[in-house]
Specification:
- By secondary structure, chain A is of the alpha+beta class.
- In chain A, 62% of the residues lie in helices and 7% in strands.
- Chain A contains 27 helices and 9 strands.
- In chain A, the strands form 3 sheets. Chain A has a 4-stranded antiparallel β-sheet with strand order 7-8-6-9. In chain A, strands 4-1-5 form a 3-stranded antiparallel β-sheet, with helices on both faces.
- The radius of gyration of chain A is 33 Å and the shape is elongated.
- Chain B folds into 2 domains: 2-40; 53-365, Methylamine Dehydrogenase, Chain H, CATH 2.130.10.10.
- In chain B, a hairpin with a 7-residue loop joins strand 3 (85-88) and strand 4.
- The chains are: A alpha+beta, B alpha+beta.
């Protein structure tokens, strides 16, 4: 009746190659299979070339690429970034005495050694280092004669009681408790501002190297009572890079799991190796192309190779399966390879394109890491078309498969169709087309989805854990961060508002007063612990100028007083404004970076800006870790909704093109919706908020998840249109494609499940959620499709015209339908 | 088959590009909705002077910088930064914030009676409350001071002050008052930086400048003014001590023997203590004629003081410590208590506890 059936007729068993018509098959097939050596040689050359390129691939954990570039807040940040150098680009090293206080002579000595060594670390801006041993950290006191003071560390410090007492007094009068010295006097901080470029090499400072140097110093000095804690943006990036490299090694595990799955499926070492090899070649090309295009691997795009590999393996196994059948029946290996190509190329192409839908929708998110991920994944999928749809069959035509496995495959096939062995399990699935079971499973699904929906109502936006959200809460970095925020006065969640004025405008009375008012307005917001900005410092300097009188903690109207205050402040803390005093940040230190907290701060700031902005003085959001996160949250929240909308729109259109029947679309899409809802519930239960990393999960989970329905429903509908009852049609669909659905689900899950162990928190979150979506979608498809079909597709009549169904059957899964089952019907039908 | 394949590819491509285009424009619209474009923001908001901006009512008022504290009958009243005035009727356990018409930083507060009180601060501001500190009106500020000074010294025909007054008027309202004292509900004084001193005899309805009535040729800051049974004293920069000489109608200079700054004064019948920089305190037991240094044992600046009903003299240090003297200021000993938070003033509560104000607002501790 259809092209598919005709094709089956055209694939007789051909034992000798001489009996095969080399001119048969379409143009592409002839092009590839009649020039096999050229194809293999060409692939080898490309592999070598791109493999060489791939060696140049760089790792990068640039935070800028994780920012939503066109959001106004981020634009403000990027425009003023160079003027906000002080905002975070320093390393804070805290040296702790775990069994005593900082006055312990042994501690002071260890601190000196650590201080000296950190000072010499390349990239550290030595002139501005602050610590108990830094001459720049001074104590001052107003005396009758004026200011007296000196370095906090007494010049003649020798560990004696006398000099220790001096140190104690200096610390008290320097007012550094809470900043340089911990509130409990058990640790002190070394603040290391960083240069942008490495003075030795003249190149951009490598955070990876810096981080490694810091770890060396930690390893060397952390013994006995001495503990060292590090925090700082550069250290975080360094730790992310380390995590990136660690995750890369997980690839071995993912590959091993994939190999095991293939082997269990085929029981043929030769073909297992071949599938893995072809998928690895795809990766080689992918990495080579990424490197050639000048892209780098970041914590997001590192995940693409995993996905591409998993998708490649699942397609490879399908090829393998086809060839095994043919070889098992006695067909010559080259002919078997060509038959497989004929049957599967288009199906594979369609499935890969369906995957591409998921990736392509990601392109619309205005966050470079996600766009890069979408782009590299699309390239990867395109490469798979060549390596796993073309090259793999060609290679198989040389190697063939092991005869034993081929025979086994035929036997298993038979057993399954007769409902024996493992086939019995698959056979149970068609029960779900019966009313009783269908109602049961639908009620169950509705109940669990409803519960999921209720739980999912609590879904948060943004990161919920304290510390650096990129890393796990029990990571070294976050433990250090916790220690430091607990023992020092300022939290690590900074929300900075950028005050912009003409040059020197920032220290004018009106500006200082308005900045001070903003600070005060922000302090009113729940979740803001304190704010730091130039006016606070000017107040302190003014008070100091008037002999420390607290009554002079004020912003005096006298501009000379203010200028003096601003200049003095700059000497002590150059982060308070830029060199020309046209950019003045107001930094709010937050108790956490939960979305609600950020929202409140954003709201208060927007409100203030609307009422106080003038042509010459603008309050711009936002910088600082929390400011950037606030912008990201806003974009992610919108993107999450639009993503859902578009990915479902795309999937619905794809299903409609394939099925030409709205009821079938409903049957295919409803299980996905259920999974999406449950995925949100899972996020709530696991404490994962909607964030940059969960966007790809939604797109991929749905985009790839629909493959299952495409496989199952296309066969089922085809069979129904041939006149079979729903039950029989579904039974056949499961027989033909059930294993493939299972295999795709398991291999995809195997590809991503290893991420769950990543030290990078968002990768772990992605791994867990994607694994859930791949697996749950698989079960959803196998169980819910028959149940929903009972109600929606029970009455599908045999087709009267062939155009639609021919397209349908040809385009997707029919190739999975093998001739031994098809032959009788095809014969009756076509003949 | 191949053609059909192409059909699928084309269709998918078309769908995707349409979706992407739609997505792009929707995203833009959404982003634009979220944040109004600059042009949509309201035109320049006029800058509001602190003298015209009421203090923000905030629960933080009792936890952020306060400079002065006093008793208004049984009530405690404290004043500080950003126009904050707070009061407590329960021994300092809970605080209410008063309505204040300015957001200038306030430096001192004094209640001669339980109902009427005055607070002073930066920008030359003088505030008055007639309801025990719950609400305040502005009686005077630096802008008025300029007019008053110009008019007064023209009318008074005072000589030698012309250039100085012209300068003061030109500099605008940048001179702070640093302390306030009222003998009763009608007569009071406000003193401040650069020899600023004003007096009222009508409860603040009008204020007259007394700049020429101080023996303060260097125009040193006047940090404190107090009356003890021995007289009306002023303390200031560089060891400046003045006592009102009612016969001559001027604040006459006293010789303290000290060249550092005095930040405060306290005393009772027969004893007056001036204190300031680096733990320095000087005592006079003869109405200010002779001053002796008192060893306080504190290395840090003394910022505030009071005399308890029991007759103890108490001083607070900039680090928040409290020194107490049971022998009329001859010797001082440190009271136990939390240190480290800068303090600016102290008052005894109705129940005999100590209320300290400073950088982190108000804190109450036991007197012993």
């Amino acid at each position: 009746m259809s092209a598919a059936m005709d094709k089956v007729d055209q694939m007789p068993v051909v034992e000798r190659i001489e009996d095969f018509d080399q001119r048969s098959g379409n143009f592409l097939e002839r092009l590839v299979f009649n020039h096999r050596l050229i194809v293999v040689a060409l692939s080898a050359v490309i592999t070598l070339m791109l493999g060489y390129q791939a060696l140049k691939l760089q790792f990068n954990a640039s935070f800028e690429k994780m920012l939503p570039q066109s959001h106004p807040y981020i634009r403000n940040y990027l425009e003023n970034k160079n003027e906000l150098k002080g905002l975070g680009n320093s390393i804070k090293a805290v040296v702790e005495n775990s069994s005593g206080d900082i006055y312990d002579p042994q501690y002071v000595d260890a601190l000196r050694q650590i201080n000296d060594e950190l000072l010499l670390t390349p990239g550290v801006d030595r002139a501005w280092v602050k610590s108990l041993w830094a001459p720049a950290v001074r104590w001052t006191e107003v005396t009758e004669e004026g200011f007296v003071g000196g370095p906090v560390m007494p010049d003649n410090y020798d560990g004696s009681e006398k000099t220790a007492l001096q140190l104690k007094q200096h610390i008290a009068s320097a007012g550094i408790v809470g900043s340089i010295v911990a509130n409990n006097y058990r640790s002190s901080m070394i603040i290391l501002p960083l240069l942008d470029t490495d003075p030795d090499t003249g190149q951009r400072l490598s955070y990876g190297k810096l981080s490694a140097n810091l770890e060396k110093i930690r390893a060397k000095y952390q013994k006995g009572n001495i503990r060292i804690h590090y925090i700082g943006f550069a250290k975080l990036v360094g730790d992310l890079l380390d995590g990136l490299k660690q995750v890369m090694t997980y690839f071995l595990a993912a590959a091993a799991i994939a190999a095991l799955i293939i082997y269990l499926y085929t029981r043929c070492i030769r073909s297992t190796l071949l599938v893995i090899a072809c998928s690895l070649i795809a990766l080689c090309w992918l990495l080579g192309i990424i490197a050639t295009l000048g892209y780098e691997l970041d914590p997001y795009s590192i995940l693409v190779p995993f996905l591409v590999f998993a998708i490649g393996v699942s397609h490879g196994v399908q090829k393998m399966n086809g060839i095994m059948q043919d070889v098992g029946r006695g067909t010559h290996k080259l002919v078997a390879a060509r038959y497989t190509f004929r049957r599967l190329f288009l199906a594979g192409l369609t499935a890969l394109l369906a995957d591409a839908v998921g990736f392509a929708v990601l392109m619309m998110i205005d966050i470079p890491v996600i766009r890069d991920l979408a782009l590299t994944a699309s390239i990867g999928v395109a490469i798979l078309i060549v390596t796993n749809l073309l090259l793999l069959p060609v290679l198989l035509s040389y190697t063939s498969v092991s005869p034993a496995s081929a025979r086994r495959s035929i036997a298993e096939e038979k057993a399954q169709s007769e409902g024996k062995g493992v086939g019995r399990l698959w056979g149970l699935l068609d029960r779900f087309t019966e009313r009783r079971w269908a109602i049961g499973v639908i009620v169950f699904a509705v109940a669990i989805t409803g519960a999921g929906f209720v739980v999912g109502l609590n879904l948060q936006v943004g990161d919920l854990d304290p510390g650096a959200p990129e890393l796990r809460s029990n990571s070294r970095y976050n433990k250090d961060n916790k220690y430091i925020t607990e023992n020092y006065s300022l939290s690590s969640d900074q929300f900075a508002v950028i005050t912009k004025t003409p040059a020197e405008g920032g220290m004018q009375y009106e500006s200082l007063l308005e900045i001070d008012r903003l600070g005060w307005a922000l302090q009113q917001v729940p979740g803001v612990q304190t704010t730091v900005s130039l006016p606070d410092s000017v107040r302190r300097v003014t008070s100091g100028t008037y002999e420390g009188s607290p009554k002079w903690l004020t912003l005096n109207r006298n501009q000379d007083v203010l200028n003096h205050g601003a200049h003095e402040s700059y000497q002590n803390n150059p982060d308070l404004y830029n060199t020309e005093c046209s950019v003045v940040p107001v930094v709010a230190y937050l108790s956490d970076h939960k979305a609600q907290t950020l929202q409140r701060v954003v709201g208060a700031t927007e409100d203030f800006a609307a009422r106080h902005n003038t042509a010459d003085r603008k309050f711009l959001l936002a910088a600082g870790s929390a400011g950037i996160e606030a912008a990201t949250n806003i974009v992610v929240k919108q993107a999450n909704q639009t993503m859902m909308l578009y990915v479902y729109a795309a999937v619905i259109i794809l299903c409609f093109i394939t099925f030409r029947d709205w009821r079938a679309v409903v049957v295919a899409v409803l299980p996905l919706v259920g999974t999406s809802i449950l995925c949100e519930a899972l996020m709530v239960l696991l404490g994962i908020g909607v964030k940059v990393a969960t966007l790809p999960v939604i797109a991929l989970g749905v985009g790839i998840g629909v493959d299952y329905a495409l496989y199952l429903l296309s066969v089922q509908l085809g069979k129904q249109k041939q006149g079979e009852t729903l039950k029989d049609a579904y039974k056949h669909a499961v027989q033909f494609t059930g294993k493939v659905v299972g295999l795709v689900g398991v291999t995809l899950a195997a590809g991503v499940v290893t991420w769950a162990f990543s030290p990078i928190k968002f990768q772990a979150d992605m791994g867990i959620l994607l694994t859930f979506m791949f697996i749950w979608n698989m079960f959803g498809a196998l169980v819910l499709i028959p149940a929903l079909s009972h109600f929606l597709l029970g009455g599908v009549a045999p087709a009267t015209e062939t155009c639609g169904s021919a397209f349908l059957v040809d385009a997707t899964a029919p190739a999975l339908v093998r001739e031994n089952e098809m032959a009788p019907q095809a014969g009756a039908d076509g003949g | 088959m191949f053609q059909q394949g192409i059909k699928v590819v084309t269709l998918i491509a078309a769908v995707l590009s349409a979706a992407a285009a739609f997505a792009d424009c929707t995203m833009d619209t959404l982003v634009n909705l979220e944040v109004p474009a600059e042009s949509e923001l309201r035109a320049d908001a006029p800058f509001m002077d602190v003298l015209d901006t009421p203090a923000v009512i905030t629960p933080l008022a009792s936890r952020t910088p306060l400079n002065g504290i006093t008793r208004a009958g049984k009530r405690l009243v404290a004043a500080g930064a950003r126009g904050h005035i707070v009061y407590s009727d329960d021994e300092g356990r809970s605080w209410k914030q008063a309505k204040v018409p300015v957001s200038s930083d306030l430096t001192a507060v004094h209640f001669p009676t339980s109902g009427k009180g005055w607070a002073v601060g930066h920008d030359g501001v003088i505030l008055h409350s007639a309801d025990g500190g719950a609400s305040w009106v502005k009686q005077f500020d630096g802008r008025i001071a300029g007019q008053v000074l110009a008019a007064w010294y023209r009318d008074a025909g005072a000589t030698g002050l012309g250039a100085e007054i012209a300068n003061l008027v030109k500099q605008g309202p940048d001179k702070p008052f640093l302390d306030v004292w009222f003998d009763d509900e009608t007569t009071g004084y406000a003193v401040g930086a650069f020899n600023f001193i004003f007096r009222t005899y009508n409860g603040g309805a009008s204020w007259e400048p007394w700049l020429e009535r101080t023996e303060n040729p260097k125009r040193l800051h006047l940090y404190a003014i107090r009356r003890t049974p021995d007289g009306l004293f002023v303390a200031g920069e560089q060891g400046l001590l003045l006592k009102f000489d009612s016969r001559r109608g001027v604040f006459a200079a006293l010789d303290s023997g000290y060249n550092g700054t005095f930040f405060g004064l306290t005393g009772k019948a027969g004893v007056i203590v001036a204190f300031g920089l680096r733990g320095n305190a000087y005592r006079s037991v003869d109405g200010g004629k002779n001053w002796r240094k008192v060893e306080t044992g504190a290395p840090t600046t003394l910022t505030g003081g009071t005399v308890t009903r029991g007759g103890d003299i108490l001083l607070v240090t900039l680090l928040g410590g409290v020194l107490a003297s049971h022998d009329d200021g001859a010797t001082f000993g440190a009271l136990p208590g939390q240190q480290g938070i800068p303090a600016a003033g102290i008052a005894e509560t109705q129940g005999g506890a100590l209320a300290l104000v400073g950088m982190r607002g108000v804190r109450v501790q036991a007197a012993k």
